[in-house]
Amino acid sequence: MHSHLYKSGRAEFYSATDDEAMTAGLELSQLEGIIPAIESGHAFAIFQHKKFKPDDVLVISLSGRGDKDLQTYIDYFKLA
Fold first, then answer.
1. I need a surface site. Which of 13, 14, 28, 49 has the fewest CB within 10 A?
2. Which residues contact 2 (CB under 8 A, 6 or more apart)?
């Protein structure tokens, strides 16, 4: 399915490093007060790679719970 969406031009795919995902997760926490699961941080890392127009509609579904990853964020960014 993903291959078809890509070939038909209906989807774009980007990769994100762990550092980009962790940084995006931390930024979301700071801006919105939401602690995303690390896997959701990968989705937010797209903002490092792609610019959107003001009338673009973007939907990102947050999966999981960030509270289970809180210690990982703390350790990764040396917050404690």
1. 13
2. 11, 13
Distance in angstroms (rounded) separating the CA atoms of residues 34 and 6: 31
Cβ–Cβ contacts within 10 Å for residue 24, how many? 22
Nearest Cα to 36, choosing from 74, 76, 69, 1?
A: 69
Per-residue pLDDT tens listing for the chain (80 residues): 999 999 999 998 889 999 999 999 999 999 999 999 999 999 999 998 899 999 999 888 888 889 999 999 999 999 98
Which single residue is written with the structure tokens 């127009």?
Answer: 53
Domain ranges of the chain: 2-77
